[in-house]
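Hi F.,

I've been meaning to write this up properly since the lab meeting, where we talked about keeping a consistent format for the predictions we share between groups. The idea is simple: the sequence comes first, exactly as it goes in, then the structure tokens exactly as they come out, then a line or two of notes. No screenshots and no reformatting. I'm using this chain as the first example so we have something concrete to point to.
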Amino acid sequence: MTGERAVLTVAELTERLRATLEERFPAVWVEGEISNFRLYGSGHAYFTLKDAEAQLRCVLFRNRGRRIKFEPADGLHVMAFGSIEVYAQRGEYQLVVELLEPKGLGALQLAFEQLKQRLHAEGLFEQARKRELPRFPKKIGIVTSPSGAAIRDMLRVIGRRFGELHIVIAPCRVQGEGAAEEVAQGLRDLNALGDVDVIIVGRGGGSLEDLWAFNEETVARAIAASKAPVVSAVGHEVDFTIADFVADLRAPTPSAAAELVVREKQAVVGALVELRERLERAAARPLRDLERRVDDVTLRLRRGMHAEWRHGAHRVELATAALHASSPVARVTHGRHRLERLEGRLRNEIRHALARSRHRLGEAVGRLDSLSPLGVLGRGYSLTRTAEGRIVRSARQVTAGDDVSVLLHEGTLECRVSAAKERDDRPRV
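Output, unedited:
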């Protein structure tokens, strides 16, 4: 052995290491957590993949980064595919990333969730931003593929429900590379027309990858910026895209979108007929109420007038009666009638008084007759008087030869006493 040292320059050693590493690891999957992620203005991104025991520098060039649907960020657990490359200037080796997938959750799903959270934070999903669809749009814009089944379904539904509408189609691709930009451009073109009342953007069903254009941010921004209300109709009812959240209204299918935008003509006619009937009823009801009020007022007026008339008539009657009562003729007549009544009463009183007087007189006469000497004479007694006129009550008052006058009930006897006896010898009864 000569003992000469094999001394390599740094460049030589680095070149040997580069050749070895790049030959040994031309394509490798590496799993780790993203750290120190930096995105530069050039579009290149640099970050570190790490685990508990080591770190690996990585670079994601711009042309590869555009293919990644989600946004890499610190702390995200990913699987990176690429090749090992030695960066001689710094004596470092790094992984040149070709593909980047999130660990666990799919890349598309992660990208969907990330964009959804970001747009939601910006308020693009707020219910307050949702606009009402015009009830009767005249011009409808449709952003979709001109050759797909969705446009045929929508035109068929619109033609069946209300055929006289103006339809403007913004043709575009609805899947694949560049589809999102074409959809967004179609929205902008329809808004540029200025007279489109409502826009339907959508396509038929498909896989998540097929529908991905409607999960792109550029489509979401175009929908949010649309002046006309936008109806999102992407895929089937179970498919939800970012466009559905941003749009003013989500339709489960393109056909349903056409039904939501265009009212059925017959239903519109029916609604107009019903509205006319309601208007007629609304107009007729106040008239009926007014007529009823007029009738009520008329009835109350008539009742009031009748009551006033009766009251007036009564007052006239009272006044007439008072006038008649205060009239001299009436007073004379009344006095005459009163006088006649008093006269009749007086006559009756006099007649009754006379009758009572006669009755009392008769009773008195009867009593007088019973007490009168003449009455006694009538019962057969007589009154004897002397010539001097004295009443002879005893035989001793006369003597024989005296003239006496005997008064009878009827007539007088002039007699001479032949004898005077003090006792009456006649038998007593």
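Notes:
Residues 121 and 277 are 48 Å apart (CA to CA).
Residues 265-326 form the longest helix (62 residues).

If this format works for you, I'll send the rest the same way.

G.
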